[in-house]
Amino acid sequence: MIRFASSGGVSTAIFTESEGSVLASLAIQVAELIQEAPASDPALGRLLPHAYPDDPVAQEEFRRLTGDDLTARKAANAKVIADALAPGHWPREVVLELAESVRWLRALTDIRLVLADRLDVDDEGLPAADADEGMLAVYDWLGGVQDSLVQALDGDGT
Amino acid sequence: LWKAGIVPQTDERTDSHTESRLDHPWVAIVWNDPVNLMSYVAWVFRTYFGFSREEAQRRMLLVHNEGRAVVASGPREAMERHVEAMHEFGLWATVSKE
Q1: Is B21 part of the contact surface with chain A (CB cutoff 8 Å)?
Q2: Which residues of B touch A43 (CB under 8 A)?
Q3: How many CB atoms lie within 10 A of CB B80?
Q4: What angle do CA B80, B17, B63 make, to 5 degrees?
Q5: What average pLDDT does the segment A67-80 reach?
Q6: CB contact (8 A) between residue A73 and residue B94
Q7: pLDDT tens digits along B1-16
Q8: B41: nearest CA partner in chain A
Q9: How many CB atoms lie within 10 A of CB B50?
Q10: I need a labelling partner for A137 at 20 to 30 A (CA). Which of A19, B68, B80, B96 fits?
Q11: Which residues of chain B have pLDDT under 70?
């Protein structure tokens, strides 16, 4: 289990090779999905939700003004995780400045949003009965990783 | 919202009546979703909007229990900036006229 610790705005955690390579792979996949998935992919609807669900004209304008920037920033956030967990020596201590921790939290959210879509998580937070057990385990694990980083930052007063 | 590893509680008492402000016509609203962590949403509210821990927790619980919470009110352009920021955090947020 990944446990982040934060002090003076710097957060650290140790990743094993299996943990790090799974998360890096997901981060790369989500960065690609954000930039390349067809507009019909429902996961995109969660990554870039409608600001004006009842006003198509205002929504179109909002997407035109913000869509490209948001897409680029989300892909860049995911890449921060992928870079920190790139192939190399394991186990590895990941050391995150506060700004990097924020990007990790954002990217972890995006990864979990995509996994939730693929697992068909319903409004109660429950996955489809036939959901892939391995993917479900990763989804739950990532929730724990994210919660650990939030708790560490909260406890650090940042 | 989802508390990591724990089934969400539904009995927290909150007051939604103070959320509407009539002096600004536009509002930014954050909606409940089954993916985002309760701890993360409270942290986003505290660090992005500058709410106290107590206020951030209160608005997070409004989202969780009532399904939505107004997180800002003011000019339309400012609300759109907030909603864009919420979308980068992965939260489900919308702009509407109060």
Answers
A1: no
A2: none
A3: 20
A4: 55
A5: 97
A6: no
A7: 876 655 444 444 333 4
A8: A150
A9: 9
A10: B68
A11: 3-24
- What tens digit of pLDDT does each residue of A37-70 get? 998 999 999 999 999 999 999 999 999 999 999 9
Using only C-alpha atoms, chain B has a radius of gyration, in whole angstroms, of 13
CA distance A138 to chain B (A): 13
Structure confidence at residue A1 as a pLDDT band (50, 70, 90): confident
Would the CB atoms of A106 and B2 count as touching at under 8 Å?
no
Q: How many residues are given for chain A?
A: 158
Q: Give the model's pLDDT for residue A156.
A: 85
Return phi, psi of residue A6, to 5°.
-125, 140
CB–CB of A147 and B4 under 8 A?
yes
**Spatial distance between the Cα atoms of B47 and A127, rounded to a whole number of angstroms:** 30
CA atoms within 13 A of residue A145's CA, in its CB half-sphere: 26
| A140 vs A143: CA distance, rounded Å | 5
CB B60 within 8 A of CB B36: no
Q: Are B92 and B33 in contact (CB under 8 A)?
A: yes
The number of angstroms, rounded, from the C-alpha of B12 to the middle of its chain's C-alpha atoms is: 16
